[in-house]
Amino acid sequence: METNTETVVKNPTAIGFDKEVFKKNVLDNLKSLFRKTMETASQQEIFQAVAFEVKDLIIDRWLATQKAYKEQDAKYVYYLSMEFLMGRALGNNLINLCCYDEVAEVLEELGLDINVIEDQEPDAALGNGGLGRLAACFIESLSTLNYPVYGCGIRYKYGMFKQEIHDGYQVEVPDNWLENGNPFEIKRPEYTQTVKFGGYVRIEWDAERQRNRFIHDGYQAVNAVPYDIPVVGYGNNVVNVLRIWDAQPIQEFNLASFDKGDYLQAVEQENLAKNIVDVLYPNDNHYSGKELRLKQQYFFVSASVQQAIRKYKETHSDLHKLPEKVCFQLNDTHPTVTVPELMRILLDEEGMEWDEAWDITTKCCAYTNHTIMAEALEKWPVDLFMRLLPRIYQIVQEINRRFLIEVEERYPNQYNKIRSMAILYEGQVRMANMAIVAGFSVNGVARLHTEILEKRELRDFYEMMPEKFNNKTNGITQRRFLLHGNPLLASWVTEKIGTDKWITDLPLIKGLEAYADDTKAQQEFMDIKYKNKLRLAKYIKEHNHIDVDPNSIYDVQVKRLHEYKRQLLNILHVMYLYNQMKANPQMDFYPTTFIFGAKAAAGYKRAKETIKLINSVADVVNNDPDIRGRIKVVFIENYRVSNAEIIFAASDVSEQISTASKEASGTGNMKFMLNGAVTLGTMDGANVEIVEEVGAENAFIFGMSSEEVMAYEANGGYHPEEIYRNDPDIHRILDQLVDGTFSHGDREMFREIYNSFLAPSYGRADQYFILKDFRSYAEARERVNKAYQDKARWAKMAMLNTANSGKFTSDRTIEEYVRDIWHLKKVQVTL
Ligand SMILES: *Cc1c(COP(=O)(O)O)cnc(C)c1O
Fold first, then answer.
1. Which of 71, 90, 684, 818 is the most buried if burial means most Cβ atoms within 10 Å?
2. Ligand 1 neighbourhood includes 559 CB (under 6 angstroms)
3. 198/557 Cα distance (integer angstroms)
4. Is 640 in the pocket of ligand 1 (CB under 6 A)?
């Protein structure tokens, strides 16, 4: 792959780290922050004291980075995202500052375990799942690759909820992640922006310029106050910024406004500010048309775009050249109001004509599509949109009007083209269409997904503007998901391939291939896996009070709970296995622990029923003496980035079993592969490319192809009751959903799941083709179980997965975005 040609000299060791100074400063911090000593401080207070010291290490690099950007007049990408699923910062900051081991030693000298201190930090869970974690990996890779970026998002008071399991059911508990403050953030009140909602638009004649002026009046305003979180690059002194916005009332409620008769106005503005950033919407891949959600979107977009323009104008006078210095990357349609907001600023505040404003806007905005599923597409009702954002709505109308003229010119009298591509249609604002029309780039997130966009979902747009479309297969950062999450394997990789350069050049990990048939290396690789399995077993024992056998196969499905991801297929197959083993206690079967972890959106009934089913099956299977522990089912509570790192390192089998065509990419699949787990999956999303890299003989592929699925869908589905009638094993497991086998005799508990296959109250029967793929899945799982019993063969497969994971670093993804979309230059930072 072609990359930026300027070379970057890595300088990982020369960071001026002094253990004794660090130790003294941590002790001083304890005193000044808490008036405590090492003997009296709590673990949480020690974490705070350490984290403040690490922030101090970061500050000089942060200043140096911003200075270098300014000197070189660097171009920035503004990565606009409603979600940044960052996880914990302490460990990864230390790793990227190249002083993790030194700090671990300092803490040990103080009688502390660095892992215990790291465990004190709450996850920054400002995201749901894959989309938010992608944003986090991207800004880390941008920093490591010396590129200027601002991550722009929202400082939710409550992030992704904490999941508790009570009697097998999910209970959501608010995530008060800022309870003890965030030692890494810095409030920047000097960059406060004002964001306006509601009101009306007045038109005035500007005689001097002989044109109309649009004046927004009667609005309510809030202040957007940014908090900056440093994003440290690996060993290169670069520190970029994640800028998340908090909402504050414009003026403190005061009696003066009461006197002026603005009493209601003042209270309303205060209330508006109070709830905008209260909570992250816990929906993954699902649109829920809530007014507050649109407020959140415009709030952080308006603040970010205003800030970007203000910064540009500090050193530039000609806004026509904005595209040379600024690119707004829209992470899904959530920040699409960027388009009309930038237009508004250029038209109303900068006094530009439409055409010049449009030219600039369309050269600055690029859009990433994350899903083709209808229920995830954002379509705002026009009445809501125009009431909340009256001036923005006028601009959207004009964008739509002009675009439809183009469509009409190109496709005279073809109403179907207007129906599919209009931005305003049947009383709705279609955000994806606006992002495509205004963006200069539209990218999918894996090859198969991009092909489906071009050939099917966005076919008309692709025909009209093919040059915009491109693919950027997702990636993950190996600094978190190998170096930090799996230190044993990381050291072993370095030893085997004779360099640690894989840390910033993951394809070098291919060097492991030379050891694939080496018996000693196989043994070492599996020994490390075993140690990681012990670590996870300990975690499960502590948190779930279940004993798991580290010698069993760890077969793992961790991801958001969603019907298309088919956790239901997995647990139905466990029920099938249970029946087999009850009928034939001597059956050939290698003991397996089936591990699940998943949060369900708070209002997603079917997803919550599935969690209850998994826990109910676990109850029966784990406690049946006939099974003798050979099948275990574990549901890990509160799946999130920090325990994900432990889970990936310990996994043998990676369950990636979405209905083909539904998972745009997946990134969990890549984290498993990197850690030497073998994929059991469908030909969906990035699984296709994983199999291409590792070879079909080193993965277990099953199920319908995306073509087959889409062909059935075009014909209204299929008939699951035929399978139910003709396959006695499937007949049995479905019946067990309603005969009380897994519900202490309760025949209603899983009735709706049963009905979804045979008598759905809405939609198609078995919409996600679970029964259709069941036999193929069962057969693939049998192959897995057999393959594991050949220790050498399994070790080789697992090692080859790690060895061939090089493509899936987010460093590669970022270099492709830079080459094709952002056109950034690398910036050297010296201290
Ligand atoms: C990577 C990751 C995801 C995305 O997983 P998929 O299997 O791709 O859906 C979700 N949640 C967390 C915590 C992750 O780390």
1. 684
2. yes
3. 45
4. yes
Supply angle C-alpha 57, 146, 232, rounded to 5.
30
User: How many CB atoms are closer than 10 A to CB 247?
Assistant: 24
Q: Are 388 and 295 in contact (CB under 8 A)?
A: yes
Encoding tokens for residue 499? 């360099």
Nearest alpha carbon, ligand 1 atom 15: 641
* Ramachandran assignment for 744, one of left (phi > 0), alpha (psi -120 to 50 degrees), beta (any other): left
> What mean pLDDT comes out for the span 593-620?
98
For domain 485-704+768-808, give its CATH number from 3.40.50.10330, 3.40.50.2000, 3.30.420.10, 3.40.190.10. 3.40.50.2000
Calpha distance 221→142 (Å, rounded): 34
| Whole-number percent of the chain with pLDDT over 90 | 94
722: left (phi over 0), alpha (psi -120 to 50) or beta: alpha
pLDDT at 159 over 60: yes
Nearest by Cα to 241 from 228, 260, 258? 228
Counting ligand 1 atoms within 8 A of each CB, the residue from 131, 175, 473, 558 with the most, and so the one to mutate, is 558
Residue with tokens 């997946």: 666
Question: What is the 3-class SS of 500-559, one letter each residue?
Answer: CHHHCCHHHHHHHHHHCCCHHHHHHHHHHHHHHHHHHHHHHHHHHCCCCCCCCEEEEEEC
Q: Where are the alpha helices (DSSP H) in 453-486?
A: 459-464, 478
pLDDT, position 637: 98
- Give, in order, the Cα–Cα distances in Å from 780 to each of 162, 520, 680, 783: 34, 29, 7, 5
- R_g of the chain computed on alpha carbons: 27
The H-or-E segment that residue 441 falls in is strand 441-444
Active site residue 671: yes
Does the CB atom of residue 125 touch ligand 1 within 6 A? Answer: no
> Binning pLDDT at 50, 70 and 90, where does residue 267 land?
confident
Look up residue 517 and give its two tokens.
């048939």
What is the longest distance spanned by two Cα atoms in the chain? 93
Question: Residues 536, 477, 451, 376: is their CA dihedral positive or negative?
Answer: positive
In ligand 1, the atom with minimum distance to the C-alpha of 667 is 8
**Residue with CA nearest ligand 1 atom 10:** 129
Q: Which tens digits make up the pLDDT trace of 88-98?
A: 999 999 999 99
Write the CB contacts of 788 (distance below 8 Å, at least 6 apart in sequence): 553, 590, 652, 794
- Residue ranges per domain, the chain? 485-704+768-808
As a whole number of angstroms, the distance between CA 559 and CA 647 comes to 12
pLDDT, position 274: 83
- pLDDT of 374 reads 86
pLDDT in tens, 167-200: 999 999 999 999 999 999 999 999 999 999 999 9
Other beta carbons within 10 Å of 96: 29
Q: Which atom belonging to ligand 1 lies closest to the Cα atom of 671? A: 1
Q: How confident is the model at residue 372 (pLDDT cuts 50, 70, 90)?
A: confident
Tell me the torsion sign for CA atoms 252, 254, 256, 260: positive
